[in-house]
Design goal:
It contains twelve helices and twelve strands. With 355 residues, it is of the alpha/beta class. The chain folds into two domains: 1-103 and 259-355, Isopropylmalate Dehydrogenase; 119-253, Isopropylmalate Dehydrogenase, CATH 3.40.718.10. It binds nicotinamide-adenine-dinucleotide (NAD), 3-isopropylmalic acid and manganese (II) ion. Its main location: cytoplasm.
Length: 355
């Protein structure tokens, strides 16, 4: 098939991991006879430096024409002044809103060989396989913001239809998995969470009564996620809770660098990015873990291009390379040989080529 993919490298390790993802997509195209074209565009701090706008109009136009978007990461100390008026992260939020990708799927799978890289006891990691469905275009990220010399506010708003559509995505996923859904909120304190719980309960009662649904408060969820992670299957939650819980969940997988995400909505064009950020502390050293981005490229193949066999092949190649003992620094334990971003990517490409 022919596909156009917009690549948004962004900042820090963003360009390093985005290049890795693109290399793997190119290897897939060659092996399976597809023609992927790439349009590389500016976003984040790089776009602020170039034209003063974290999401240039050309970037939006390119994404809109594309079958899918692969993004590295944005942000960094250069643009983090609390008094700055333009910020890299605004570009990321704006492209999510522009593309209408309200559902951010963050699968958390554990490769058994990485149990030693996790701070959690190995026996608790057995059978961990969950997917967090994070609402991505609403909530406190997008409400009105104010600030003056003495106070500041961020408004958290959810509309009934925004809750309904994200819970529907999660419930359909649950139906195709174990039938278990956990909705996470803070209904003991927040009105938005009480609406969330009400909408969720009604939707489940009318359309998904076959599912086994649990409501959990977010503070308890943060604890249970570490204490009994294998009890979770599909988790659905609002924008900010999903952001925080998935960085926490990455510790089950051994590193933030391992986890991918797919952001989808009503259009075919999805946005695919690792869950981590621009990692300023290791940027430019060529040591970032590319697996989260490469696994995001697999999700791109599956969800936007409907190339399931190709997606499976990428995921299998990551698993095999890890099984072969290949490690970047973040997932290495004593005695492991440490590979660069490039060497890890090459190993995954080589694995794909020989399959
Ligand atoms: P971060 O995710 O960039 O880094 C947190 C820690 O994890 C760091 O120690 C980093 O070195 C490590 N890490 C992250 N990805 C890694 C990888 N692939 N391989 C190895 N180690 C990895 O979070 P932060 O430091 O809090 O934020 C830095 C900047 O990134 C901020 O400006 C933030 O806004 C931005 N950010 C962007 C995104 C995104 O673009 N989607 C996501 C999160 C944070
Ligand atoms: C993520 C990031 C972003 C978010 C930031 C950079 C806006 O943390 O993609 O997880 O909070 O959504
Ligand atoms: Mn985050």
């Amino acid at each position: 098939m022919d596909a156009l993919i917009t690549v948004l490298p962004g900042d820090g390790i963003g360009p390093e991991v985005a290049a890795a993802g693109q290399q793997v997509l190119t290897a897939i195209a060659e092996k399976y006879g597809h023609k992927f074209s790439y349009s590389e565009q500016l976003i984040g701090g790089a776009a602020i430096d170039a034209i003063g706008n974290p999401l240039p109009p050309d970037t939006v136009a390119s994404c809109r024409e594309s079958n899918a978007v692969l993004l590295g990461a944005v942000g960094g100390p250069k643009w983090s002044d609390p008094n700055a008026t333009v910020r890299p992260e605004q570009g990321l939020l704006a492209i999510r809103a522009e593309l209408g990708v309200f559902a951010n799927l963050r699968p958390v799978q554990i490769l058994p060989q990485l149990a030693g890289a996790s701070p959690i006891k190995s026996e608790r990691l057995r059978n961990v396989d969950m997917i967090v469905v994070r609402e991505l275009t609403g909530g406190i990220y997008f409400g009105a913001k104010t600030r003056d010399a003495t106070s500041a506010s961020d408004l958290c708003v959810y509309e009934r239809h925004e809750i309904e559509r994200i819970v529907r995505v999660a419930a359909n996923l649950a139906r195709n998995r174990s039938g278990k859904l956990c909705s996470v909120d803070k209904a003991n304190v927040l009105e938005t969470s009480r609406l969330w719980r009400d909408v969720t309960s009604k939707l489940i009662a009318t359309e998904f009564s076959d599912l086994n649904v649990e409501h959990m408060l977010v503070d308890a969820a943060a604890m249970h996620l570490i204490n009994r992670p294998s009890d979770f299957d599909v988790v659905v939650t609002e924008n900010m809770f999903g952001d925080i819980l998935t960085d926490e969940a990455s510790m089950l997988a051994g590193s933030l660098g391992m986890l991918p995400s797919a952001s989808i909505g009503e259009s075919e064009c999805g946005l695919y990015e690792p869950i981590h950020g621009s990692a300023p502390d290791i940027a430019g050293q060529g040591i970032a873990n590319p697996c989260g981005t490469i696994a995001s490229a697999a999700l791109l193949l599956r969800y936007s291009l409907h190339l399931n066999e190709e997606a499976d092949a990428v995921e299998a190649a990551i698993r095999q390379v890890i099984a072969d003992g290949k490690r970047t620094a973040d997932i290495a334990v004593d005695g492991d040989q440490v590979l660069s971003t490039q060497a890890m990517t090459q190993a995954i490409v080589a694995q794909l080529e020989q399959r």
